[in-house]
Amino acid sequence: MSKSIDPHAKPPSLAAHHIDPHSYPDGVAFLDGQYLPMSQAKISVLDWGFLHSDATYDTVHVWDGRFFRLDLHLDRFFGGLDKLRMTIPFDREGVAEILHNCVALSGHRAAYVEMLCTRGASPTFSRDPRDAVNRFMAFAVPFGSVANAEQLQRGQHIAISDKVRIPPASIDPAIKNYHWLDLVRGLYDAYDRGAETALVLDFNGNVAEGPGFNVFCVNDGKLSTPAIGVLPGITRRTVFDLCAEAGLAVTAADVSVTALRQSDEVFITSTAGGIMPVTMIDGVPVADGKVGAITKRVMAIYWQKHENPAWSSPVRYP
Questions:
Q1: Helices vs strands, H then E, count in the chain
Q2: Which residue, 9, 106, 114, 173, is the most exposed by fewest CB within 10 angstroms?
């Protein structure tokens, strides 16, 4: 039974400032021209990024003190800003400098680094997005992976959910965004079935992608990955580049659920973890249930490229 409200009671006192009881990873954020501890980076509850998922972002990782393919991440971020009609007071060089500063100030040699822009808030709580003041932020926290150390060794166990990814006609997948409810529902489908992560479907019932990652399959030595309705991931693109160098055939095409389950090898790709093997789908082993030879080969080449100046750039630590 709800408690009745006393009409004569005095209202509670107004706090002078917010006291945050939560814990956050160690890191450094950039917000409103200031570099702050991660725990101090806040946005308004009236920000359209929070209220409407009206935001775009990109993530790049730092490994052994070097950014990996930063230019490609900047390309995608500024492309998203343009398509969403957002503006920020920094050019590419300015954003790159901010990202470098966040990592350098954090001291992390392996970091997950994000740049993002929200629609912002309107001073008058207007419903017109043109009245909102766009807001740029960035942060660097310790490197995190979709797959943990054990899963990288023995391969991830995934489930294929029947949830459908937001179609490209609704949201251009080239714009990296926070519309994740379809992916989160897919994750819970996977957890309910004893799996570790999920893949969702495209609007034609083919395999699409997972929460923050693309998927590849290998058959008869040839690689393929879903072509439509998926984020054109930087690590996904990197696999194409690596295969071109290594003489491996790779295509972007429809991948049916049946084809994925019957593959010789399967792996997923993400800035958060790189190239990660999959050895079980819906409780059934992929081929012999072991990490495949081509997956191992591409993984090794991928991490070797992190030392190559043509693919990576050093962080300027103090």
A1: 8, 15
A2: 9
Q: What secondary structure does DSSP assign to 186-219, as a single string?
A: HHHHHHHTT-SEEEEE-TTSSB--BTTBEEEEEE
Joined together, the tokens standing for residue 128 give: 């017109």
Q: Quick one: tokens of 62?
A: 């730092």
Taking CA atoms, 167 is separated from 44, 179, 230, 258, 260, in Å, by: 30, 11, 9, 21, 21
Question: What pLDDT, on a 0 to 100 scale, did the predictor assign at position 1?
Answer: 58
Q: What is the pTM (predicted TM-score) of this model?
A: 0.94
| The two structure tokens encoding residue 263 | 């593959």
- Token duo for residue 289: 């249930």
192 and 163 Cβ atoms separated by less than 8 Å: no
Residue 68: beta bridge partners?
312
Rounded (10°) CA dihedral 76, 77, 78, 80: 80
Q: What is the DSSP string of 210-247?
A: BTTBEEEEEETTEEEE--SSS---HHHHHHHHHHHHHT
Q: What is the CA radius of gyration of the chain?
A: 22
Q: Which tens digit of pLDDT belongs to each residue from 2-50?
A: 677 888 888 899 999 899 999 999 999 999 999 999 999 999 999 999 9
